[in-house]
Each structure stands twice: as structure tokens, then as C-alpha cells.
Design brief:
homodimer, 717 residues, Jelly Rolls, Glycosyltransferase, Rhamnosid-like_N_bacteroidetes (chains A, B)
Chain lengths: 717, 717
């Protein structure tokens, strides 16, 4: 009776009591599983195109547990993906319980779940007990019993905190995850007797929907990111071919998503179609960042960049929406940075990093690419800095370490890395770029990765590891300057082959050395003049490496130059009608030449995440906001007009947005998160009613920005 | 036209043309997947009971390829488990082709398959091209393309030979595998108004079938390996509970297999059942070995042992059919040896070893048990010796090595192994057996495992590894005698704790040291007298360790003593009505006490593979047949009557059976495989018309036995 009353009161209680319960799993496993699902969805003209690297799987047998103290008995509802059993205080319960009552007192509940197809996951809901990240999980509980039935009391088991995301509905388990969709209509329709040519007005992504489809015959659908592609029925990259035989009208939604602006629908026989729309598919994220300025072209670039990033922010940060729809570490590492200045969607960063890393044993570089392994390391430290998610490093330090072990075993006799059999030394898509021997760019990323390892080892209190990695980083960095710095060239040279440094200079290592702060002031100026602003050094044509090139220039205070470059390069794509930014852009090409790549007429992706870098540059180097301690506990605001009359915008932090306005006369700032420092130059003595301005040198000033407070500074640029 | 004629002739051709085509996969992957299926089928009274160690998964993305030269064009049929694409000579074909034509000339075909749920597998059938173990497979092809579309021409990819078994029907893919079944009826039925009590006459295994089931109500089924268990509705180990509501009569087969001799079926409401039978489930194997002798009790023991082994020879060699139905390395290693003297079903051995090993990284001992890791190593060398399957060692040497690496990293400062956190030091089910400190038994198995590694490293031409492992083995073996041999005790002592050798003597290390030939002749005699034949040393009560105890005695020529022990111990179980041999037998217990274990009334398994050891002992030490080189290229026949008047039997080899008859006056032998050597003692000069008998010492004789030839020797024992 008492129990029933309790149950009744439980049912009558407000739903918010249950707000914390969420589906949980082994951390990283769902990310790997979902990554497999997504990366094996790529098709090209009906042909299946899976990745060429090893894909891992979730652990199929999982133990979840939680210890707790109850002041009164509690009814728990159990939802499980997989075959399972339940133990209360080590005693196994009969069958597959869906509801159990836990008595008052100290207790321990274990759920053990097997699932080969999907990730073992549980959702537990009670008045006070809910499944969440505080639960512990392991893939080997090692709980054997002796001949008397006594369980082993020792344990060699590593328990991690459970992984979770936002699956807060017990009836929608993780395996059923789908992105959101929204129906959208074409802006123009060219309808003929046996065809539709549709223009959705801008690059988009989703499921095409044929409305009121009926009759008997074939439907052939040709998708195009450009009109040329949609019309090129023999060479467009993606298609859908259907055989129809239905008497009643029915809406038909395509099975797989496609990227397109234009769609060419052709049909024959007695097939009739009332109209065509599409289900736009997207990850719901919040536009927390923002940027506006006095230049409308820059504002347009920002908007198109944001849209480009959003289209590529999906189950994971992907490279491009037409192809590959795989997760590439180099591409993703840029998306993370752009994301910190726009959506600040941390789960998307963590998901992507976990899917990329996969599991041990390591049998190749991430995506098979040496540089992409290093971006993975470097991104983790960025992630910690921006989000303060220490648990991520604590949980995955072993995976960081084993990946670094892989790199360390591949060093040559000089302690440097060169491409061994099976290693792709990528760097950039650039014709004739040498990958031979010990490339300086790879050593530089290697050194930075070792520094990241040292920092992360410190975070997890592995002091011995920390000092070893620091020492290794120092050695590699030392060799970088010993072997590659050429004082006649005023630059790091590209590579060493057979122990001899080549005289060839490329931009890659030099621009990274700037914003990694590996160069002294003199070297920075040398690199600026002799590499970055030197047209004799081979130009960069991908937005991918333009990201870093412009970041280096910004770090050197060359924002006005960068503004011009941005307008030329991204503005150049806009002038060609781009509604999202491209995988590659060469202003020298003409017309449909722009669409070709990989030896294919429409091989190029016209919506590539790495094309969205202005998001990052404008937030970090114009609004000038960046963390100087994890989770923005401390941060800097160093606005730079970059030749614009005024700029304003928002930069998200884990706790609210930092707001910045800047003109030549006035700076306005609202603080968020921890403690900010506004830093600026002024010709005259600046004034503010809201706080104290400190002079920090000739014409240099600083002001402390507190959380939630707004400040206005009068100054003179 | 030509093509159609070709196709027609292909279809008209005899099926035998296609005989070689078989489903293929990544070696070891199907075994792991099937192991997961089987080991997660265990239930106890409706509760799911999965293993407590890590289970691995198949690689979900697989590339299969084959290069070949065709004298004329050939049509290939493709069957695939998973989403796939096909490349011919590196060029990808459209869609999901089911039939392709390969032109004459030199060609390469690749199939790339993704499957998360099941093992990626392919079946390719043409006139000359068939999928088989000659195909190559990899989980990472690393075939990237550059910006011009050119594929990488270097490769860091390891290609292995495809795995296969006997899936020769394209329409029955590996994921659909089921063991065979055969309907069987109870020998007695006690039918009451609302119940059936059935006796199937002997221990059996399969799906219970309720015939002509109808009505509304509950059916409760209680299974028993003993009648007591079937009647103990509250404590029997396995049950099925059904709710019935059906108006028409229907046969109903239970979903999961059970082990039983007796079944107690109870029902209520309006439920009616016409009768009950069962579908006996089994792996079809051939009884290639055989044994008969002058003692009918021994013959009965042999028959019951063979049945016990067969019941436990399933998807894999399992421990027992009631529980755990998991794969245990220690149990399986005995089944392998018994199998070599009965079914000689090599695929079952390979499957079991692969499922046990799983994949890297190694995170615990096999089954969490230190000794079970070592049995795995030792079994591999046995497997090679009996079957000559060198490819197994070539393919899986890396997995041997990484498992040994795991062991090597767990050595203590003395270079020895003791149970660390998470290690189960099992040895045997024996009350009060100490597992503390450095147990001699574990060091002995460790030394033998290192010797196996040295041998296998040699087989795969890793000469450096081979010498390192040989050196390590020597060191561990040296310490074994230095630390544990106690000349006052005339034995190896049980353990060392805190650097001090204990004075306690157990049988384990001593009996293994005998048949590993680690002892000199004097030590062997000491161990025989002071350990093996000494009642003061704690007795062994499990058939598991009796296996090795009796093997040691046989190796010392004590067959007459072993005959007596066999009759006492196994004969003892038969006298208690056993129809299969038990997990444990203690003659001191009475009645239903025999059925209890693990603190549960019917916890003991009455059909345990390790109970079948007479199969091995009688084949190897009575018929006396054993290989002295891989695959019986050379072998020994050394018959031993063991106090019996006559023995006769067959021992399987990869090529036919060796047949042996022996009495005190006559030996008859038929050779198989390579070259045998018959070795025997005789008081008088032996004679044979079929071959030349060599004298090899005082009363010792040898004779060469050729393949397929029969020999008869007159002698005098």
C-alpha cells in the first residue's frame, strides 16, 4: 500500500524531476558507432564509397554501475539497448527487469548489456537516481567466482565515467538518432513535360521529396552544386535512379541525403510528379557568436561562412557535404576553431575527436595522414582551453598516449618523422609539393603535439610522462631550427632529403611557426617579409591553408592586409555566385573550370568546412577575444579594426557571450565567464566610467572585464 | 551472343566445377563474432549470463582481393554480406553488381564490404575464379588519391589470407549458421493431468518441443541433468516459462537450447499438450578415432567420454553444456587433445583458439586467467604438431606475440609472474589451494609458453624473436629449478611468497614437469614416488587436473596404475548412473550431494568436456600413437596394454587413420600419413613378415611403418 502510494506520487510529480536522466554508454563508443554509420553512407552515382582506413567498433559487452544512498525506497525504470541483466548489491535479479524497487540505504546497481549491432546503452530513471555521466562503465568487469560461489574481491578493472549526449527521452534510444529536418521549397522551378529543373536558391543538404508521385516508368535525379553539374547527367557526382510502378499518388522521399543547389529530375513512361521539395537536414545548434562591421562584403562573407560551417556541422564535423562526408582530422580541427567562435557546440567537438581517434591498437595515422594525427593532438589542447573539459583529457589520456607511442616508434634515426610505407604526408592540395624526406612542416606539428602531450600529462598528474614529453618536444623543436632555419632565406626550408636540407621555401612551416610562437621577434619579421608577403614563394590556393596563412598574418598584426585578402579571396567566390565556400578556389580559372577536381568534371566540393575560416579570424583576431586559461577563466579582448571603420560582435564562452564593439574612437565590451582583460592601443589617454584603465607601456592600455558587466572606453586609435 | 552461349554453357556445367568456392572473411573475425553470439546465449532461470571478460568484434570494413590470369572471359557471380563496392583492375564499378564479366588476361578484383552487425563476407563464383583462402584481405587498404585523382602507389597495408570454414552455399551466408538438429523422443514419459516428467535416457542437448500445444495458461519447464534437478522447481539451473493463448494446436519449439536428461513440464489453465520431444543439436563430426579393449568398463568409459566430448564440441569447444557455454582456454586445450584422438576436427580447434584470443589490445589474460593464457600458447604448438597447419601460425604470429608482450610486462622484479590486480590464478578447483606469491605452476607454464613462442617464431622466420624467446624460456626454466626444487621433498614446491620458497608440495607443477620432460630421470622417479603416488599430497578431485595427473603417470609408464584409476574414478561416475562425465567428482560424496557446486544445489555441470580425458590417454598412451613431426610426417606407435589383455583402435591423422591392435603376443599396425615408427619391448626376438624389425637395445625393438601398409608382429610381452 505504502509502495503504491509512493509510486502514485512519483507518477504525479513534475516531469522536471527526471530532467537529468539520459542515455549513457561507454565513452567514445557511441561516437565510433555513429561515425561508422555516417561515413559508410557516402555514395557516388549509386556506388558505395567507404573510407580507406580502419574503422573500429564499440565494445559489445558493457557493465554500468552506480553506488548511491537512498533515504527512502525508490522505484527505478530501466530502459536498455541490448540483452541485459541487473544486479542489486552484487545479487543478480531474475529475467529482464523493466522496473525495480531499491530499498533505503546504501546500494549499488549494475546493469550488464550485450549488443553487437548497436552500442550497449542504458537509461535509468528514478526520483533521485538517474543515469548520467556520474555512472561508471567498463568493458571487462573481471568478476569471477570461486568454486564456493564467492565473487573475486580484487579488481584490475578500469572504470570510466559514462559517455552521454542529449538523449534524454527513454523512448528514443541512441541507435535511433536522426538529425532534424525541415521541409523547404525550390525558389525557381522549370517544369517541362518530363522533367523538373529546380533551383533551391543556395547550396543545401537533405532528402529530395517527390510529391504526388504516380505512374509507371523511371525517375532519374541528377543533383548539382552548380547548374552545370545538375545538367551534366553523365558526369554529375550524385544521382538517384528510381523505378516507379504505382497507381495511387504518393509522396516519395529519397533514402539518402544529397548536397545540391540545383536538381534535375527526369522521368519517362506514365510517371507524373506534382512537385518537388526537400527535407533540409541539420544539427540544431545555436548561433551564439556573431560579427558585423562597416563593410557589407565582409558581413556577407561572415554569413556565408557561418552557413558553410553549419552545413558541415552534422553528426560530426565533416569535410564537405557533397563528398566525402567522412571525418577528416585536418578539416575538423579547423571546424573546431570556427565553432568556438560561432556555435560553441562542445559535444560536436568531442564527438568528432572521439570518432577520429577510434581505438587501440593504432595501425595507421588518423585518416592515414601524418599531419592529421598531429592536428588531433593539438585540437585537444585547444578544446581544453576553450571549454575547460578536463574529464575528456582524464578519460582519453590513454588513447592520446598510445597514438603518440605510434608516432614515436615511427621516428627515423635522426629522431624525425618522414613518410613511411602507408603514411600519407598531405600538408595541402598543391601541385608539385614535395613530400619527400623529413618535411619541416611535419616536425613542427610533431613538436607541438609533444608539447600538448606534456600539458595533458600534467593535467592528469602523470608527472613523469609530462617531463618526458616536454623533453622530447624540446629536442624536436631544437632540430627544427638546427636543420631547417636558413638565415639566407630568412625562413624555415621545406625539407631535408638524405640528411641534406633543401633550399626550397614553402609557406607551411613558416606560417605555423608564427602563431605557435616558435619564432623570435626578428625571425617573425623575416618570415613576414620573405615568406608571407613574398609573391615568389608558391601561393596557397586552398581555403584550408589560407586559414593558417591569414592566422599567421593576423598574429603579426597584419589585419588590414588580411581584410583585403579576405575580400579578394572569399569575396572572389561570392562574385562567382558562391552561396557556400569551396574546397579550393583559384582566381585564375574561368567558369565551370572552377568545379573540376581529382580529374573529375564536378569533383570539387562547393561547400567545404575549411572554406569558413573568416568566422575564426574575425572572432579571434578582429573582435580579438581568446581564452588565456581553460574555459575562459581568464581571457583577452584585443580588438583590431583591420582597416574597417567599426566592428562589433559576440564571442561565446562556456558561460555567456563576450560582446565587443570597436571603432577608432570607442570600445564597448560586455564580459562573460571568468575575468577578461581588454587590451588596446590609444594615442590619447583613454577614459571609462565603468572601470580602471591601466597603462602598460607606451600607448598601451589594459582594463579588467568582469563577468556580466558592460564597459565603454573612449580612446583614439 | 557469344557471351550468352558462354553463360548458358556455364549454367549447364556440372556443379562440381564450383566446388571450391566458399564464403570468406578476415581470418579470426567470424570466429570472434560467432563466439560472441554463442557466449551471450547463456541464461540461468531466464536471467542473461554473459562473460566477465572483454569481447572483441570483427572489423566492420573489409577489402577482399584476388589477382588472376584468365585465358578467356569469365562471368562471376558475387554474393556479399554487407554494403559493398567492386573494383576491377582498380576501377570502381557502378552500384552493387551481382554478376560481372572479367575479360581474358591478367586482372585484379577487389570487393570492399561494410557490415557492422555481421562479419563482412563474400562468395565469388566463376568457372575458374572462386573465393577461397587464397584471396587476400585487409581492414585498411590505405588507398588514398591525390588532387589529380591518382591513387597512392605505396602501401603500408598488411594483407592476410582470407579465413573460411565450410560455407560452400552462396545462399547460406556465415551469419545464418546453425548447428544441425535431429528430433529425438524421451525414453520414458510420466504423463499426468497437468504435467509431463520426461526422461531422455541420457544427458542430451537441444531445443525442447511441445507438440500440439493449445489453450490458455502457463507452461513452466524445469530442466534437469539429474531427476532431482528437474523436480527441484525452485533451484534447478535452467527453465523456460511460457504464457500460452492459442486456440489451434501448434508445435512449439523453445528458443534456446538447454542441457538435460530429465524435463519436468507443468502447465495450468486450459493448456493441453499432446506430447514432448526435443531437437538434438550437434556439430556434425566424424568419429575417426576408436578404442576397444578386453575390459568392458573401460570400453564404456571410452564411449561415454566420446559422447561427453561430442556434446561439448559445438560452435566451439565449450566447457560444459548446462553452463557456462562459454569458451574457456584451459578446458578447450584439453578438448583439442581429445579431439586429435577422436574427431580430428581441425577447424574446431582453430575456431576455438581464434575466438579465445580475440584481438589487440590485450587488456587481461585469456578468460582473465593467467594459466589459461599459457594453455593457449601451448595448444598452438600442439595444433601445429598434430595438423601441420603452418598458415595458422603465419597469420596469427602477431597475436601470439602481443599476448606474450602482455605477459612479459607483468613480470615482477624477479622476472616471474604472480597474480596482479585483475589476474585470476586458477590452477584448479581445490579447497584451500594457495594462489599467493609466485606459484611454481604458473612459472612452469610460462616457460613452456616461451618455448612455444621460440618455436613459432622460428616457423615464421623471425630468427631474432626466436632466440630472444628461447633465452627467456631458459631463464624462467632455470629459476623454476633454482627456486622451487626441494631435494628434501623430492619435488617442486608450490610457491614462493615474499622471496621465500614455501615447503608446501602440490601435484600441479610436478606432474606437468614430467610430461614436459623438464625433469631428469632421477627427478622423475622422485616425483613419481613422493608426489604422484603419495597419498599425503592433497588429492585431485576434478577430472580437469586428473587429465594431467594421469598423463604424467602414463608418461612414466604407469599405465596399469592408470587403468585402475580410470576404472575407479570414471567407473565410479558410471556406477552412479552418469551418462556423461562431470565437472567434478568426489567419491566421498553421497546421492544428490554430487550435484552441488558454487554454493548452488545443482550448480555442478554433469557434462563437462574436461571429464572426457580417457579419450586422449587411451589414444596417446595405450594405443601409443603420437606425432613426432608436424602433421604426422613422422610419428611413433608405442602400444601399452596397461594391464589389459588386448587393446585395439584407430588414431586419426591428417591423412587417414593409424590402426593398432596389441595383445601380449601380437601387435598389428596399419600406417597412415608419413612414416611411423613402431616401438615395443619383447622378451623373445619378434618376427614380422611385412617389414624389418630393428633391435634398439636390450629387449627394445623398432619397425618402420609406411603409409597405408599393414604389419603384424609376433612378440612376447
Amino acid at each position: 500500500m505504502k509502495k503504491n502510494l509512493f509510486l502514485l506520487s512519483l507518477l504525479l510529480m513534475n516531469v522536471s524531476v527526471f530532467a537529468q536522466a539520459t542515455w549513457i554508454w561507454y565513452p567514445g563508443d557511441y561516437e565510433i558507432w555513429l561515425g561508422n554509420q555516417m561515413q559508410n553512407r557516402r555514395t557516388e552515382r549509386t556506388t558505395f564509397m567507404p573510407p580507406f582506413w580502419k574503422l573500429d567498433s564499440h565494445y559489445n559487452l558493457m557493465d554500468f554501475h552506480k553506488e548511491f544512498i537512498l533515504s527512502q525506497p525508490e522505484e527505478l525504470e530501466l530502459f536498455v539497448e541490448g540483452r541485459y541483466n541487473v544486479k542489486l548489491d552484487g545479487k543478480i535479479l531474475m529475467g529482464y527487469p523493466k522496473r525495480i524497487t531499491v530499498p533505503a540505504g546504501k546500494h549499488k546497481i549494475n546493469l550488464k548489456v550485450f549488443n553487437q549491432d548497436h552500442v550497449p546503452a542504458v537509461f535509468v530513471r528514478g526520483k533521485t537516481i538517474q543515469s548520467d555521466a556520474s555512472w561508471r562503465v567498463t568493458f571487462e568487469d573481471k568478476e569471477w567466482i570461486d568454486e564456493t560461489g564467492k565473487a573475486s574481491d580484487q579488481s584490475g578493472t578500469t572504470w570510466l565515467q559514462a559517455g552521454s549526449w542529449n538523449f534524454n527521452d527513454p523512448l528514443v534510444p541512441p541507435s535511433q538518432f536522426k538529425l532534424n529536418t525541415k521541409e523547404e521549397n525550390p525558389v525557381t522551378v522549370d517544369k517541362q513535360a518530363k522533367s523538373f529543373l529546380l533551383d533551391f536558391g543556395k547550396e543545401t543538404f537533405g532528402f529530395l521529396k517527390l510529391k504526388g508521385l504516380t505512374g509507371k516508368g523511371n525517375v532519374r535525379i541528377y543533383y548539382g552544386e552548380s547548374k552545370e553539374e545538375a545538367l551534366a547527367t553523365e558526369t554529375c557526382e550524385t544521382t538517384d535512379f528510381l523505378e516507379i510502378n504505382q497507381s495511387a499518388k504518393r509522396d516519395s522521399v529519397m533514402e539518402l541525403t544529397k548536397a545540391f543547389r540545383y536538381v534535375n529530375v527526369q522521368f519517362d513512361g506514365s510517371v507524373a510528379i506534382d512537385g518537388v521539395s526537400m527535407l533540409y537536414e541539420f544539427l540544431p545548434v545555436t548561433e551564439r557568436g556573431g560579427f558585423r562591421c562597416s563593410d557589407e562584403e565582409i558581413n556577407k562573407i561572415y554569413d556565408v561562412a557561418l552557413y558553410t560551417l553549419h552545413l558541415n556541422t552534422r553528426e560530426f564535423f565533416i569535410d564537405g557535404i557533397k563528398r566525402d562526408r567522412w571525418i577528416w582530422s585536418g578539416d575538423a580541427s579547423q571546424s573546431y576553431l570556427m565553432n568556438y567562435y560561432s556555435f560553441f557546440d562542445s559535444p560536436s567537438v568531442a564527438r568528432t575527436m572521439l570518432a577520429l581517434r577510434g581505438k587501440d591498437p593504432v595501425t595507421s595515422h588518423i585518416n592515414t595522414i601524418m599531419d592529421y594525427t598531429f592536428y588531433w593532438f593539438i585540437s585537444i589542447y585547444d578544446y581544453y582551453q576553450f571549454t575547460g573539459d578536463k574529464a575528456f583529457i582524464q578519460q582519453f589520456y590513454p588513447r592520446m598516449k598510445s597514438l603518440m607511442d605510434y608516432c614515436l616508434t615511427r621516428r627515423n634515426k635522426n629522431g624525425l618523422l618522414e613518410g613511411l610505407s602507408g603514411d600519407w604526408v598531405f600538408i595541402d592540395w598543391a601541385e608539385g609539393l614535395s613530400k619527400k624526406g623529413e618535411v619541416s612542416f611535419e616536425q613542427l606539428l610533431f613538436a607541438r603535439s609533444l608539447e600538448t602531450m606534456a600539458l595533458c600529462a600534467g593535467i592528469v598528474n602523470h608527472t613523469e610522462d609530462a617531463s618526458q614529453y616536454a623533453q622530447l618536444a624540446k629536442e624536436v623543436k631544437g632540430k627544427l631550427f638546427q636543420y631547417y632555419w636558413n638565415s639566407e632565406k630568412h625562413a624555415l626550408v621545406h625539407s631535408r632529403v638524405d640528411g641534406v636540407s633543401t633550399p626550397h621555401v614553402t609557406r607551411y612551416a613558416n606560417m605555423f611557426a608564427v602563431f605557435f610562437d616558435y619564432l623570435n621577434s626578428a625571425q617573425k619579421q623575416e618570415v613576414k617579409q620573405h615568406v608571407l608577403l613574398n609573391n615568389q614563394v608558391p601561393k596557397i590556393t586552398t581555403p584550408y591553408m589560407r586559414f593558417y596563412e591569414l592566422e599567421a598574418l593576423c598574429a603579426l598584426g597584419e589585419q588590414p592586409y588580411v581584410t583585403k585578402e579576405m575580400k579578394d579571396y572569399w569575396g572572389g567566390m561570392l562574385k562567382l555566385g558562391a552561396t557556400s565556400f569551396w574546397e579550393e578556389y583559384n582566381p585564375d580559372k574561368k567558369g565551370a573550370e572552377h568545379y573540376a577536381m581529382y580529374g573529375r568534371e564536378f569533383g570539387k566540393s562547393l561547400c567545404h568546412a575549411w572554406g569558413a575560416s573568416p568566422l575564426y579570424l574575425l572572432g579571434k583576431y578582429y573582435l580579438g577575444v581568446k581564452p588565456t586559461a581553460p574555459a575562459y577563466q581568464t581571457y583577452l579582448i584585443e580588438p583590431n579594426l583591420g582597416g574597417l571603420q567599426w566592428i562589433e560582435g559576440k564571442v561565446p564562452t562556456p558561460q555567456g557571450e563576450v560582446e565587443v564593439y570597436c571603432s577608432a574612437k570607442e570600445i564597448k565590451v560586455t564580459g562573460a565567464a571568468g575575468t577578461g582583460t581588454l587590451r588596446f592601443k590609444s594615442k590619447k589617454k583613454p577614459t571609462s566610467k565603468q572601470g580602471e584603465i591601466r597603462s602598460t607601456g607606451a600607448g598601451l592600455y589594459e582594463m579588467t572585464i568582469e563577468k556580466g558587466k558592460s564597459y565603454r572606453v573612449s580612446y583614439s586609435l
